[in-house]
């Protein structure tokens, strides 16, 4: 379990910006929690605060408990021992973050060597297994990023995040810029991974209909605050906060009854 308690995030500078305001949220293993909100609502700031990946110029206050440890009290070395192995990230735009001169296999094997000490045939075997789990052909390990489609690169990014068998996966808009069919395939794969591995996942998106299909719980963000939490059915059929009500009504007009 990851227990986020009264988290606040402030971007320092000439004009300070309070991006997250006393947010509390609990993530459970085997559960997909959706974090839904418009651009600038603070979704990505919350996600990046969990593994301590915000800039040093950002002030983070509150408590993030994982395995009885407050992650906000750890130094960089201690955080590195938790990243990848316990809490892994699929960052926004992950499919565009590959090093162009490295093959997909070399990307995965680098993570395996740095964080697990695996190399040679053992790393290659593990790499093949991860590609298969991400529903990619094993021969793609020898391909360079530019030789893969957008959907294939997104799957490869997920395979990299899974390399160290994390307990939690933080996915920041993992279906952005993908066509509808590929989106559905990625969503189905993520659902299966969570069930098979009993992982917890924080799924960040601006797409409420998408969240209602994949998530077990949904938290709606507005201006740095979580304004409503509940099951997809509760959020869609019995929204309480005015922002959630407006969001659901607007989407129903466009896409019909979400339920």
Give the tags.
259 residues, Rossmann fold, alpha/beta, 10 strands, 4-stranded antiparallel β-sheet
Task: Describe the structure concisely.
With 259 residues, the chain is α/β, with parallel strands linked by helices. The protein has nine helices and ten strands.
Description:
The structure is a single chain. The protein has one domain (28-59, 75-230): 3-Layer(aba) Sandwich (Rossmann fold). β7, α6 (180-197) and β8 form a beta-alpha-beta unit. It is of the alpha/beta class and 259 residues long. It has nine helices and ten strands. The longest helix is centred in the last third of the chain and has 18 residues, at 180-197. The protein is globular and about 55 Å long. The strands form two sheets. The protein has a six-stranded mixed β-sheet with strand order 6-7-8-3-9-10, with helices on both faces. α3 (104-116) crosses α4 and α4 packs across α5.
SSE topology:
Layout: E1 2-11, E2 17-27, E3 32-36, H1 43-49, E4 58-66, E5 69-70, H2 76-82, E6 87-90, H3 104-116, H4 120-133, H5 150-161, E7 168-172, H6 180-197, E8 200-205, H7 208-214, E9 217-222, E10 225-230, H8 232-237, H9 242-255
Parallel strand pairs: 3-8, 3-9, 6-7, 7-8
Antiparallel strand pairs: 1-2, 1-4, 4-5, 9-10
Return the CATH class.
Alpha Beta
Quantity of strands, as a count: 10
Oligomeric status = single chain
Q: Decide which structural class fits the backbone.
A: alpha/beta
Main sheet overview: 6 strands, mixed
CATH architecture: 3-Layer(aba) Sandwich
Average pLDDT metric: 94
Q: Tell me the fraction of residues in β-strands, as a range.
A: 15-25%
Q: Helical stretch count?
A: 9
User: Helix share of residues?
Assistant: 25-40%
| Whole-number count of domains | 1
H/E element order: EEEHEEHEHHHEHEHEEHH
**Under CATH, the topology is which?**
Rossmann fold
Low-confidence stretches: none
- If strands are numbered along the chain, what order do they take across the biggest sheet? 6-7-8-3-9-10
Distance N terminus to C terminus?
Answer: 29 Å
CATH homologous superfamily identity: P-loop containing nucleotide triphosphate hydrolases
Shape verdict: globular
């Amino acid at each position: 379990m990851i227990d986020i308690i009264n988290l606040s995030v402030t971007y320092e500078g000439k004009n300070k910006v309070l991006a997250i305001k006393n947010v509390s949220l609990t993530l459970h293993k085997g559960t997909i929690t959706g974090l839904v909100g418009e651009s600038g609502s603070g979704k990505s700031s919350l996600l990046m605060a969990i593994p301590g990946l915000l800039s040093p110029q950002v002030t983070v206050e509150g408590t993030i408990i994982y395995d009885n440890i407050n992650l906000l009290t750890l130094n960089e070395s201690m955080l590195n021992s938790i990243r990848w192995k316990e809490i892994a990230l699929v960052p926004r735009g992950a499919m565009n973050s590959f090093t162009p001169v490295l093959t997909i296999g070399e990307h995965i094997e680098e993570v395996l060597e740095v964080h697990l000490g695996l190399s040679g045939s053992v790393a290659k075997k593990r790499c093949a297994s991860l590609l298969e789990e991400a529903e990619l052909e094993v021969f793609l390990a020898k391909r360079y990023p530019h030789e893969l489609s957008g959907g294939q690169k997104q799957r490869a990014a997920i395979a990299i995040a899974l390399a160290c068998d994390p307990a939690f996966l933080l996915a920041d808009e993992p279906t952005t810029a993908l066509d509808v069919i590929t989106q559905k395939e990625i969503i189905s794969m993520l659902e299966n991974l969570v069930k098979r591995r009993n992982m917890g996942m924080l799924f960040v998106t601006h797409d409420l209909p998408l969240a209602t299909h994949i998530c077990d719980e949904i938290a709606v963000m507005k201006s740095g605050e979580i304004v409503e939490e509940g099951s997809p059915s509760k959020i869609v059929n019995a929204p309480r906060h005015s922002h959630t009500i407006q969001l659901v009504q607007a989407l129903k007009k466009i896409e019909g009854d979400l339920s």
